[in-house]
Design brief:
Number of strands: 4
Number of helices: 7
Strand content: 5-15%
Length: 152
């Protein structure tokens, strides 16, 4: 991590080179959502088995909406208040405000979360490319919300 120099913006003093950790954290969060979907499907949905090892499940429309809301709240609340989802906690990274290094708050977390729709196009290819070409390894949601993902 770089040394802080008086008058230097916070972004210069934090390690933003965490692209691999970001990818792994996204996979971990996806596994959390998979477990949640499996539990919700077992409780409220329909499970169809094909053979002994394969199954598929579906949720009724109401529970699909509830599932989507839970995912949105997961990101907004965890990143807004803690700066970390479960995946980020396990991988040792955190979302911080670009100007002061503090947790982003609900407003910035909401912007980051809503822009996941664009960032997530083509299996997060848009986010990956943006992180690689931005000077501070930011995806579109980070740029719009003035946040960074840094090593903790």
């Amino acid at each position: 991590m770089a040394q802080a120099v008086p008058g230097t913006p916070i972004a210069v003093t934090m390690d933003v080179h965490v692209t691999g950790r970001r990818i792994l954290a996204t996979i971990v969060d996806g596994l959390v959502f998979g477990v949640l979907y499996t539990v919700m499907t077992a409780l409220f949905g329909t499970i169809t088995t094909v053979g002994t090892a394969n199954w598929s499940g579906s949720l009724p429309a109401f529970w699909s909406v509830v599932y989507g809301v839970i995912i949105v709240l997961y990101y907004i609340l965890l990143e807004g208040y803690r700066g970390q989802t479960v995946g980020k906690m396990l991988l040792g990274i955190k979302v911080v405000r670009e100007d002061n290094g503090e947790v982003p708050g609900l407003g910035a977390a909401t912007i980051r979360t809503l822009l996941r729709i664009i960032d997530g196009i083509f299996s997060y290819l848009v986010a990956f490319v943006t992180v690689l070409i931005s000077g501070k390894n930011q995806r579109l949601g980070d740029i719009a919300a003035h946040t960074l993902v840094v090593r903790t």
